[in-house]
Design goal:
- By secondary structure, the chain is an alpha+beta fold.
- It contains two helices and four strands.
- The protein has one domain (4-85): P-loop containing nucleotide triphosphate hydrolases (Rossmann fold, 3-Layer(aba) Sandwich).
- The protein has helices spanning 46-53, 76-86; strands at 4-15, 18-30, 61-66, 69-70.
- A four-stranded antiparallel sheet has the order 2-1-3-4, covered by helices on one side.
- The structure holds adenosine-5'-triphosphate (ATP) and magnesium ion.
- Adenosine-5'-triphosphate binds next to helix 1.
- The site of magnesium ion has 3 residues, from helix 1.
């Protein structure tokens, strides 16, 4: 069991009823302490995947499992704890608060 496991992640965006698939079945394992780079062409879905790993995007198919526990996006408390205590990342557009 890896620290973080992504299983069969599918994600599409829609323009009206037209579907634009972005992630088409991503399976990935991350071990604790592992240093990983995700590379790909612009528009390839890297930020989309980060939003899913980060617990921000709940509109996808597949599962995200952390330390053996699969995230359940209907459990707000669990998601709050995950975002507060387990996961953190810097957004591509920073989203920092100016002082
Ligand atoms: N909120 C959104 N609504 C509709 N389409 C989106 C949305 N966000 C991203 N997309 C589309 O999904 C695809 C993947 O975008 P994403 O931002 O995940 O790519 P990326 O790999 O992070 O690209 P970049 O290297 O430019 O940061 C692109 O075609 C993009 O236009
Ligand atoms: Mg990006």
């Amino acid at each position: 069991m890896a620290f973080l496991e992504l299983h069969d992640i599918h994600k599409s965006y829609y323009l009206g009823k037209e579907e634009f698939p972005v992630l088409k079945g991503i399976d990935l394992d991350f071990e604790l302490g592992e240093f990983v780079s995700i590379l790909g062409e612009s528009g390839g879905g890297k930020s989309t995947l980060m939003n899913i790993i980060g617990g921000l995007d709940r509109n996808f198919d597949g599962s995200v499992t952390i330390q053996g526990q699969t995230l359940d996006h209907t459990k707000e408390k669990q998601m709050d704890n995950y975002r507060r205590g387990t996961i953190g990342y810097i957004y591509q557009s920073y989203n920092l608060i100016s002082i």
